[in-house]
Amino acid sequence: MLDTLDAAAVRRWCASGLATLQRHQGEIDGLNVYPVPDGDTGTNLVLTLTSAQQALAMDLGTLPDDGHTPHGHALRLMARGALLGARGNSGVIVSQILRGLADALAAAPAVRGRQLAAGLADATAAAYAAVARPVEGTLLSVVSAAARAAERADSDDLRTVARAAAEAAARALARTPEQLPELARAGVVDAGGRGLCLLLDALVEVITGESPGQPAPAPPVRRPTATAARETGSDAYAYEVQYLLDATDEAVTRLRAELAALGDSLAVVGDGSGTWNVHVHVNDVGAAVEAGVVAGRPHRITVTRFADQTAPAPAPAVALPDGRAAVVVATGAGIAELFAAEGAVVVPANPSTGELLDAIRATGAARVVVLPNDPNTQSVASAAAKEAHGLGVKVSVVPTRSPVQALAALAVRDPKRRFEDDVIAMAEAAGACRYAEVCHAGREALTVAGPCRPGDVLALVEGEVHLIGQDLTDTCTAVVDRMLGGGGELVTLLCGADAPAGLADRVRAHVERSWPFVEVQAYEGGQPHYPLLVGVE
Asked: Which Pfam families match (predicted)?
């Protein structure tokens, strides 16, 4: 049993946490509220912790040269490795939890119970700050409950506080279906929260030498689901504004109040050395930037205009000439070739923060746009952009959720425009491109379009199931009709790796008959899981 958390214990915690996540990887992947076959939270957390362990292993136990204690040095290495290896939203948030712990505990002479409680409080703040629109019933609720329990324990005994945090996290995880109807309908708990509980259990085991009891994460109920709406942009405000700000704590306090009066989704996060990352959704962009000028020195200003419920996320986009470059995430060989033909650097699907950062640096450009093409990759892209900013590279992220949106964004690039103006144009083009995905249901579920069974054909529009069919071609043509019913001049079709021969030709022929003034472009995308991706501009 340990009285303090030393560097060796940090290393054992990372190794034990990774091993635990690996054992439960399939279980966590299965906690997916969609019937489509792409749940990968468990895999993403394993890859995130693998990177953390690699960072610790490469250090080889050397003495810290950063002025921090040995345990603080180990925690910083673990957090840094997790950040660079983070995949998916849960991976990014877990990396921020580790960063919060490292920041709070790095300089502490010894880590006992009260220090661990303070570290969990900072970890919670860092986790919430990493999300533009925090949602309860997720990993955030679980870490928050752990931190509150650790504080209530009010003890210097490390074992008492660690146990209190882990037990509270397990109880909070069991409550997540009560907080999110999507989880309740699915009969599952939050996948990221489950992963965090396993990490806290591993910490208890390292500290106490005893395996904690594993309470059932949630009552086993039926799994009908698929109704979860993915994150969208602010409904009340049209623009997202982000910038870095050099300012004092007092000035930032006033800034928060001013920005809160202008809009919502406000997050102002500092690095402890006078630099702040400011994020807000507003209608008056000028006022938001002016408030930053009054508070201090804003720089790396980015603006995104939300259109057609485009998702909130970092920011905008750009081209290749004049010191610019584009980095695009792609699933499927055909899609990768399309992006490469547009002059973009292509990164394989589900990249880590470090992989995206390497791609950004490899361009050699001073201004880079990143198009993630997946809601779950947006947090990773944002983290990579922040890291790149520290290297002097200006990076903007256009929050594309589908490859068809990225194609629309890349098509409007113009190196003759200012970078910021080009970014706004790309974001507008992506937002004006509605997208749909057609796939086969992986399990029985209850969707907003009705119940589905394994093998049924599902058509998802903007991430939500709109149609359920039995015939692939009929469902594909029906979803195109539904999308064109809202207007459109150009339809883009990307055929997947498992698409039957002639699918695109049949959909094209239907559009030519039913919508004679609409242009159709069809490509072999090669993406897995989805026989057809559709974009309508």
From this structure: Dak2, FakA-like_C, FakA-like_M
